[in-house]
Write a structure and sequence with these properties.
alpha+beta; HIT family, subunit A; six-stranded antiparallel beta sheet; 8 helices; 13 strands; 32% helix; nucleus; DcpS/DCS2
């Protein structure tokens, strides 16, 4: 949702993102003892709240207060709507305020178009664009310098050259392990994206990979073979970072048109140290993205001389 907080500013816009949370195993699990207790005592919602710990721990969808509303039944198949405990039906709310034009474009539903970016196009179109349109990185520097979100840090390697901070992504509530989503923010500044990486950065990439996996396994019991570790291109912000997500969860941006597996990036740089200064990289852009507009203008400029040459050839033949 896009709007304004009238009590804060009548001019600045805000984005409010509402998301439904994923189910957890605890929420869909009942034991025979729980079912028997529920049937015997017919406990009310208030009584259950007094017996259960605060928050959602111990709650389940399958209680005497749950209600099924039939849509249809056909032979062995049936569709129903279920009303459950409100504590298990809460929404995750993310707020971006004040929201820039780039934030608004990112969260607007619209057509997307595939871009096949050559290194020449990167240098002539993309690089000048990102230097003009870069979002503020103040929030990121606040994290790296412990001015904000210090309590959310899962792991930190303080090395200035190869160190990083690992913390929950804003998309994750930090509790539902089934939706695990962490960000690794490298401490070194000056590496904007995949395009800047060379063989000299391999120690940094291997360090993030190895220590990030170890930290997640120690905290959540999720091993390397169950993690999806990748970089985005194009990224939302131009300071090198990696995404760590649980394979059981398919978050936005994990598709092949945006995500580049960290293991593949490392392998590519081992094969050719300047791989990302030579490769053509594919990604999608929204139709209102300024960068997409610049690619269209560049294409029109390239097509115009060809059209003129074609017209000249036709005139010559007619003479």
């Amino acid at each position: 949702m896009l709007g304004r907080f009238s009590n804060l500013s009548p001019d600045q816009q805000a984005i409010v993102v509402l998301e439904k949370r994923a189910f957890t195993e605890a929420e869909i699990t009942t034991t025979p003892a729980e079912r028997e207790k529920s049937a015997q005592h017919g406990e009310s919602e208030n009584e259950k709240s007094e017996q259960q710990p605060s928050g959602e721990q111990g709650r389940t969808f399958f209680t005497t207060s749950s209600r099924l509303h039939k849509e249809f039944v056909n032979d062995v198949y049936g569709n129903f709507l279920c009303t459950v405990d409100p504590e298990l039906n809460r929404l995750k709310v993310s707020i971006i305020y004040p929201a820039s034009e780039k934030h608004i474009v990112k969260h607007t539903a619209q057509h997307r178009y595939m871009i096949e970016e050559t290194i020449d196009q990167y240098n002539k179109i993309t690089l000048p664009h990102l230097e003009e349109e870069q979002l503020s990185l103040e929030w990121l520097y606040n994290v790296l310098e412990h001015r904000k979100e210090k309590e959310r840090i899962l792991y930190e390697d303080p090395c200035d050259e190869n160190g990083f901070i690992l913390l929950p992504d804003l998309k994750w509530d930090g509790k539902t392990v089934e939706q695990l989503y962490l960000l690794a923010l490298v401490r070194r500044r000056g590496i904007r994206s995949l395009r800047d990486l060379t063989a000299a950065d391999l120690p940094l990439l291997r360090n993030v990979q190895t220590r990030g996996i170890a930290a997640i396994e120690k905290r959540y019991g999720i091993g390397a073979s169950q993690l999806r570790i990748y970089l985005h291109y194009q990224p939302t912000f131009y300071h090198l970072h990696m995404h760590f997500t649980y394979l059981r969860y398919d978050p936005p941006g994990a598709g092949c048109e945006k995500a580049h597996l960290l293991s593949t990036v490392i392998n590519n740089l081992e094969l050719a140290g300047d791989y990302y200064q030579r490769a053509t990289l594919s990604y999608t852009l929204k139709e209102t993205d300024k960068l997409y507009g610049k690619f269209l203008l560049a294409q029109e400029a390239a097509d115009e001389p060809a059209a003129k040459r074609s017209k000249t050839t036709v005139l010559d033949e007619s003479q």
